[in-house]
Amino acid sequence: LAKQNGRNSYRFFTSEIQSRSARILSLENALRYAQVRGELSLHYQPQVSLCDGKIVGVEALLRWHHPEFGMISPCEFIPIAEESGQILLIGEWVMRTAAKAMKEWLDIGFPAMSVAVNLSAVQFHHAHLSKLVSSIIDEVNLPACYFEIELTESVTAQNPVHAIATMNELNAKGIRLSIDDFGTGYSSLSYLKRFKVYKLKIDQSFIRDISIDPEDREIVKTIIALGKSLGLKTIAEGVETKEQLDFLKENGCDEAQGYYFSKPLNVTDLEALLKHPEIILRKNSNNPQ
Ligand code: C2E
Ligand code: MG
Ligand code: MG
Ligand code: MG
């Protein structure tokens, strides 16, 4: 019986692997046509200043809606695009689309804010990244100070010498860099000194239990203090409650981003929100009505 069971679970195991790799293959194939078929879009999540409740930026987050598979999470398709090299073309589309959108919002007359795009290691370590970024913002006619790049710690850990060179080039062009998911990666603190970083994005895993977990509270306080002493801005990711927001304000965090203020929004919904900034201002105030 044991033998039979063993064989059954073996069969189950292989068929599971087979169907999983079949999905990866079909997603990889479908991804080839996703951009030309108009299946990709960007959603934008507001980043809010905690001193005055103003929207100071938005993060561009990629969305893929496939006619058959439905909505596919970037957590699933970004690794596939990285593996297959498709991330280079997709990433270029993301940067151009985000830069164009921000240029339009500034032209319309919305208050100055920046747009942040996420970059994969494959993109960041590709030769001529800084040339590509500056050609895109030049083409779109967006001043560099409105364009930000988000990198995770693993990106900078992979090839520090190259990373420093690329960061210096981007900096020279006036483009700001944020470290995404800060605190979860491998970065040694001495890196922060050598990298020209503008902002630390405190990972949402530290924010989640901030009102009940004393260790998370200490970690978040330490990151904010570190940011202050190095002259870096700090932004908390994944802020969902008023309690989390109050803690961050009390401890001097500069900005916050999360469902408490707004989910990532499509262009229409973001523009509607930008026309009514009082919605966000009210949420940031100490006595929300
Ligand atoms: P990330 O850059 O750390 O983005 C934050 C993720 O947290 C987003 O998930 C966002 O929708 C979600 N989020 C925002 N506020 C809250 C909140 O209050 N609570 C919770 N639970 N979640 C919140 P999303 O959009 O699914 O993106 C996942 C990851 O995919 C991103 O993590 C980023 O690493 C990657 N990604 C997204 N777009 C791109 C892109 O254009 N290029 C690359 N290379 N990666 C991307
Ligand atoms: Mg990000
Ligand atoms: Mg993050
Ligand atoms: Mg992430």
Automatic annotation (TrEMBL):
Where in or outside the cell it occurs: the entry states: Membrane
Domain EAL: where? Answer: 24-278
Name the source's superkingdom.
Bacteria
Name the record gives this protein: Signaling protein
Q: Organism, per UniProt?
A: Sulfurospirillum diekertiae
The beginning of the lineage is: Bacteria, Pseudomonadati, Campylobacterota, Epsilonproteobacteria, Campylobacterales
